[in-house]
Amino acid sequence: MSEEFPFVGTGSGMTDTTATEDNLSMCREYAWDFEKNCFLYNGNGQHIMVEGVEAVKVWVYKALQTERYQYLAYSWQYGIEVKPFIGKVMGVQERYSEIKRIIIECLMVNPYITSVDSVEFTATGDKVVCEVDITTVYGEVNVNV
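Given the sequence above, the corresponding structure tokens read:
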């Protein structure tokens, strides 16, 4: 596994299994509560681990919430570049087209993602929700950000 991706390591004693013929180890992440926007913990206060498609879903959600180059903890390949759009004068469709491009660029660095199938935007007042459909080595995933 490359050190450039903020994936959870396998130091928890879990057995690694092969995800694909390319010998990718099983994707693991800490479980995430998408409604409350926080980690999930078990009854003992320890992080809950998820694997496979659920782990990729967490990675996608977190990557799309993290501004690229802002945090030293992440490589420069991780995250999304949204800051350049703040205050920039663009038409709505032009802005959505550019944001779609940077979303695809952000997600395709992940070796577990094989394609970004659709990126749809829904505006409600001053809030825009993005629905992303991707294909992973484990199957299809839908993430709303």
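The first helix runs from residue 53 to 65. Try to locate this feature in the token string yourself.
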